[in-house]
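Review form for a predicted model. The reviewer records the input and the model, then writes brief findings.
Reviewer: anonymous (R2)
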Amino acid sequence: MTKNTIFRSLIAGAFLCFSGWAVGQPGGFGRSPQINPDKTVTFRINAPNAQDVKLSVQSEKGPVQMVKGERGSWSVTVGPVKPDIYPYSFIVDGIQVMDAGNMYYFPNERFKGSLLDVRGDSSLIHSIRDVPHGTVTYEYYPSAEGTTGTVLVYTPPGYNKNPGVKYPVFYLVSGTTDTEETWFKVGKANLILDNLIAEGKAKPMIIVMPYGNIEARIAEQKGGLKPADPADRESAEAIARSKTFERDLVDNLIPYIEKNYRVIANSENRAIGGFSRGGGQTLRTGFGNMDKFAWICCYSAYLSTTELERDFKKVVGNPKETNQKLKLLWVSVGTEDRLYNPTTEFINYLKAKDINYKSLITSGGHTWMNTKAYLANTAPLLFK
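Model under review:
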């Protein structure tokens, strides 16, 4: 195993075995969040000097007004809430804050939200089950411009017990402002794969979860300020940043993984997938390196016709060759996603160009609830 391992945890660990993400809030104001028997959820925050407090939770269409109690504790009950994991936060006089009563948080470089886990009557695909569990390892690797990169690596159940076995690899990228931890702590990629592998629905595979904002890491490690995120995902700056990510992945991270893990190092055993910005990075990296990736999974993202015809002429201009090289091109989006229209335009373009693809259109928006479902639907198709 790699010499640069800084943390290793077997995901069967008891630190995830809790009930309802509910922890006593400081000050004796009760639990937050409190999941009630009818699947409604009560949220509380101690903010005696606040003038206005709202709850922002992805189970609701918009912010929900909270009510102030006698001792300065604000509360609101919402739902019933469909079983799933939901990011949420409080908006206190216009400032977004985490829930002080909840230790489980949404890892992100720009904001810090909390996580609500509403359990179902039956086990969900991301639930901890009594099955063999893989291992998630936090790694350092040599990255762009002499910086040190951070990445999480999931190895499947039995990896350490079978030293002669090599595995395919799925590079899984999260969205704008997310960190390398988001697919692990919010997307539950490790638990989804544990369960799919146990059911015989997915092949055992290694999952590599990198940080997507290479420019931010360079600035941070060299004493600069993190650059603002491009407002236009199709701008020259956004494309240039995606190219930086691509070079780091291809030139630095893939060689590191293939040196330190037992992988099958060819395109037919190498996949790439991503959500939102990570979906755009996935398409650009995959289309630009089809000698390295035969499996491309795009979640809530797209490429414009202009970019496709300008930068990927070989991909769209020779569909027969593209279809021969790609084992899978997958595109998913929700009907309420802000990227629904351009993503469906991208799908229609692929169809018009006779490029083979699979797609899944769901309800819901640009959320990690949808993203978990997309991973659960695509992982069984990989490396078959």
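Findings: Confidence is low (pLDDT under 50) at residues 1-28.
Further findings: The first strand starts at residue 7 and ends at 10.
Recommendation: see findings above.
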